[in-house]
Amino acid sequence: MTFSLAVGKPVSDNFSFDFTLAHLFEPRKHMMKSVWSKTILSLLLVCSSSVAVGQTADLVFTNASVLTMNDDSPTAEAVAVTGNQITYVGDAAGAEALVGDNTEVFDLGGDTLLPGFVSGHDHLIAQGWNTRGVNLFGVESVEDALASIKEYADANPDEDIIFGFGFNRSVYGRWPTKEELDGVLPDRPAFILDYTIHDIWMNSKAFDLGEVSIDEPDQVPGVMYWQRDAEGEFTGIGIEFQWAPAYRTAGGWNIESDLAGFQQVNYAAAVETGMTAVHVPLIAMPTVTDAELVKEDEALVLEYLQGLEQAGELNLRTFVATAFKDPTGDPAAVVEHTLSLREKYDSDMLRIWGIKIHPEGNWGSKTSWQLEPYEGTDSRGAAAIEGEKIMATYLLANAAGIPVGTHVDGSQTVRNTVNAIMAARGAGFDVPNNLLHHYFTVPDTEHRLVIENGIMVNTTPAFQSDWDGEDENALALLGRARVEAQYARYSSLMAIGHNVSIASDVPSSPIDMIAPLFNVEIAMTLQDPQNPESKPFPLSRKPATLEQALKAITIHPAAQQAMEDKIGSIEVGKYADLVVLDQDITTVAPRDISDIKVLGTVMDGRFTHRDGI
Question: With a threshold of 0.85, does the pTM exceed it?
Answer without folding.
Answer: yes
